## 1
Amino acid sequence: MNTISESVDLIAHLRVNASSTECRFQSLSWSDLEGIQDLNFDHCIFEKNEFGDLESLQFTDCIFLECSFNSSSIKETLFENTRFYDADTEKGCTFQFAQFDGSTFKGCDLTLANFSRACLYRVTMNQCQATGIDFSHATSSHQVGNTVVLSDAWINDCNCAYANMKGANFCECDLSDNRFSHSLLDNAVLDNTLLNGCDFHGVESEGLSIKGADLRDAQIGGLDVRRMDMTGVRINDYQQRILLEAIGMIVD
C-alpha cells in the first residue's frame, strides 16, 4: 500500500490521480488544498487527517481513523461501505459544525461519530451502524434568503442506539426504520417527521416535540406522551393501548 504523509506528496498525487486505490494517507491537512472535487478513493486508509471543503468525491470501502471534518463543507459526496470508527482506540471521527448538501453515507460505520451542531440539509444515511452517534443541536434546515427555510434529510434503517440528539432539529425529515433505543432526545424537534418503524425503547425525551409526526409501526413504549404535544401524530390502532397505558389508563 502506497503511503503519503507529506503535504507536497499529497498535492503531487492528487494532480495526476483522479482515482486512488489502496493508498494510506497519514497525518495530513487537506483544509488548505484547492480543487478537492471529482475524485474517487477505493480501499484507502486515512489516519488522523484534517479535511476542508469536499465536493463530488466518492469513497468506497475506505477507513477513516481519528479524522476531523470539523467546519467542512461536504457537497454531493458519497461514502459507501466506509468505516469512521477506530475499534482499537474506541474513537469515532468528528464532523462538528460541518455542512452537508446532497451527501450520502451508505452502509457505513459511524459509531461514536460526532455531528454536533452540523447542518445535515439533504444528507442521506442508509443502513449505517451509528451506535452512540452525536447529533446534539444538529439541524436539517437550510435558510434561503431572509424568510424561506427548507428542511430535508433522509436517515433510514440505521442503528442509532444510544445516540445523543439533544436539541437536534429534524423536522419534516424521513427518519423511518431507525433504532433509537436508549437515546437522548431531550428538546429535540421532530415535528412532521416520518418515524415509521423506529425503536424508541428506553429513550429520554424531556421537551421533545413531535407534533404531526408519523409514528405508525414504531415502538413507542419509551416515549413519555404525558409531557409532549401529540397534536396531529399518526399511529396504528394497536398502538392506542400502549399510549393509554402510558398515561395510567387500564384498557380491557
## 2
Amino acid sequence: MTEKEIDTQAEENTTQDLEQEQAQIIMTWFQHINEVVKAQFPEYEVDGQIGNNPIYGPMFAFTLKQEEKFTTCGFFLNEIMRNFQTNPNAGLWLSSFFVDLLRSPESHPLPNPPQTEDDAKELLDKHIVPYVATAVREEFPEQKIYVDLELHEEHGPVLEAGFVAVQEGNNTCALPLQYLMTLYLLNRDPAEPMIQAMYRLYEENNLGQA
C-alpha cells in the first residue's frame, strides 16, 4: 500500500468515525426528545421519526395519537439543541407547537410536499406568502408594514418585511422562502419566525414609544 493509499484510507476511516459519531448524537437527542414529548402528553401514544433536510439538516417529527385522531409536528435538530441547552422551559416550548393543533377536532398529518416546481410556486404564492404577510400586518395593526419578495445572493428567494416608519439602520428582516415552506411542511406556523424578527426590529427602533 502506497503512502497516498494509506492517507486515503485514513481519511475514509476518519470520515466514517465522524459520521458514526454524528449519527449517535442524532439518535441520543431523538430518544431524549421522544421521552420529553411522552412526558408532556402522557394521555397520547407517541411515535417519532428522524429525517434530513438537504439545507437545514436533521429533523425530527413526532405524532401524538389518541383513538383515531393523530397530530404530527416536526422540528429542526439545531433548534431543539439550542432550546434545550439555553431554555429552562424547553419542554413547554416543545409542547406548545402541538397545543393549537390538538385543539382542532381533525387529525393533522404532515402536509404532502409539492411534487413539482409549479406546485411549490403555487403553494408559496397562493398560501404561504399571503398568509405570512397577513399575519405580520395583523400583529402590528398600528404600523404600516411592507412585505415584498427579494432575491438574496446566498439564500435565493426571500420574503422581506419591514416597518415603513423605519428608514435607516436595521430596518428589514428577511427569511428564505425555502425555510418558510419547510416550516409549513412540518405543520409549523411559517409566520412565527417573521413575527419574532419583526418584534426585534420594533424594539430596536423604539416604535412602541413613537
